[in-house]
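note to self: dont lose this again. the chain is below, predicted strucutre after it. 737 aa total, dont forget to put it in the shared folder this time
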Amino acid sequence: MSAEATDHAALGRRRGLPRIDLRNLRRFSRAALLGPASRGRLPDAIEHVAKVHRAHHPGADLDVLRKAYVLAESSHRGQMRKSGEPYITHPLAVTLILAELGAETTTLTASLLHDTVEDTEVTLDQVGEQFGEEVRYLVDGVTKLEKVDYGAAAEPETFRKMLVATGNDVRVMSIKLADRLHNMRTLGVMRPEKQARIAKVTRDVLIPLAERLGVQALKTELEDLVFAILHPAEYARTRELLLDHARRPDPLARAAEDVRAVLHEAGIAAEVLVRPRHFVSVYRVGVKRGELTGSDLGRLLVLVSEDADCYAVLGELHTCFTPVISEFKDFIAVPKFNLYQSLHTAVAGRDGEVAEVLIRTHQMHRVAEAGVIALGNPYATTTAPHAPLEAAADAPDGERADPTRPGWLSRLLAWQSAAPDPDTFWSSLRAELAQDREITVFRADGGTLGLPAGASCVDAAYAQYGEGAHDCIGARVNGRIATLSTVLRDGDMLQLLMARDSRDASSSGPSPEWLDHARTPAARIAISRWLAAHPERQQPPSAATAPAAEPDPAQAGGTGSGAPGLGGATGAAAVRQAAAPAIAADLPGAAVRLAGCCTPVPPDAVIGFAVRGGAVITVHRERCPAVSRMTAAGRATVGVRWLDGEEGDAGDYRVTLVAEAFSRPHLLADLTEAIAAEGVAVVSAAVEPPHEQRVRHTYTLQLPDPGRLPALMRAMRDVPGVYDVTRAGREMAAARS
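---
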């Protein structure tokens, strides 16, 4: 095994996670080559899976697993993986991962069969006849996500299907995540460029989905595997750091002994473990804190039987040690959106070293590691557990009634089918997955709304009323009149003011500015639909007011002066980088400006829109999100193109770049130094407050030559801690230069 695989295996053993090493693969391979056992006898290849499964489910029916393995083995016989192993080793490895996490028998059965319909002669009807409609449904859901071309065009539709399948049965996503984990473990046989492409999709979509489904055991190992592929230098340094500390005495082991003694003396039955951090976690802590000690490389985990014992442990720790109050968090009273529950604290021991402590019950720990997988079959109590079209009456058409579905998933399901195009869906999906917390807003009628952090009153209106929110004219937040653009906070009291409740409802309806205030896809799509059906609302009230989707370039840092522009044939507008006079054959006398939201530069593909009654043409990059919104709303376009560049002075190409990084000291200085080294001037910079040890920097830059942009973005990505640099206003999936 490689050094990286050995490291992951060691971490997996310490965390209690499944790990298929080469010895297991060879054992699986030998058993697969020998074929299935005689009728009624458990095949050797699945014996270990069955043993692990029985540890979680003592009364499980192993005969159905035997039948599923026999069908899978015979169907895949003769097929080989790129690694040279018999193909059956893959579904076996995926099933073992799920068995270790405590998945129920139906999930394991579907996991063994998950590739048969796609890759063999087995049909879905055969699966249904032999194993029942529930297994058939799960296999069908996973099959729709298999054999994916991870090109940029295929990703949006692929993950749209994944989202629907996940919403109808979260076990489909559980199998997909385990499938991806095993494929990532064996990714070394592929070309480096394909490894990187698959790793990026895993990072951008599958890891956030694993986080939201609470499957931390899969999420953390996927993070480490992606880290090794996309950031090999940082991975190597982290690995050396861990190996160096492994040779020294572990201060957390001594802290664990002290905690055990305190709890024993207090008469509290508890299991105290040292829980090592995974590679990415160590790297993030290192970026945040700088110099690392042995105590920073892990945390103490205290497991007890009852919820009340958790608080008893907390009281003893805060009494007998010095607590770090700022580190205390109660996720038992207020669970995270992904079902996670635990008490977090930190205490200083006798030598002054601070140890972070997690306190939870054994059941909380199972859910923390396995998330929805630990819930077993969440549909077992419904009247129609097997067929999604026979769902309970209160479930949407085509979906199961799922009491475990988290709010973020319900929101995605509500708008995914209405997304106007794949690119809008893809960018909205990534934006939604980037939200790592929810807020609860209390309604004036006594109900509550679950919204993503950063949501506004506009989002709340559409969450509460659907398309009825078109009649919203204002709001009261905590008893005070507030604008619809007001960003809501957790615990706010909200009263929405509707036009139907006022004396004059004639002027109700969304304005284009609402799109600037909407953060949720459901709100944005509903607003865009209404605006498209009411084109008269697209026109600004006066020539002095432009639509909010098209910010003034002079204010947004989107224009320079005297630079090469756009030139036109018949029917096209000629555009300059400055707000100087420009030529528009079909709009004589119109001024031409570059949109500040996407700051186009040559040779970007561009498109123009007439604003202010035709007095101005605003030019956007074709892939700017504002373009799809305005096109969907029925806005007419104006053809524009770049001139050859002979007219104008160099040095005034402006572009806005967004750098995403792990928060650390001197990051701003290092980034600006890298920018200056490329001969580029900083016009403006904005730094968002750090969140979850991550930070976003937005720079408006002035380039002497647009051809330097790719090199500039590479230089910024090379700054330690930076993990992405993108053009503002462009979908992140397509933003790599």
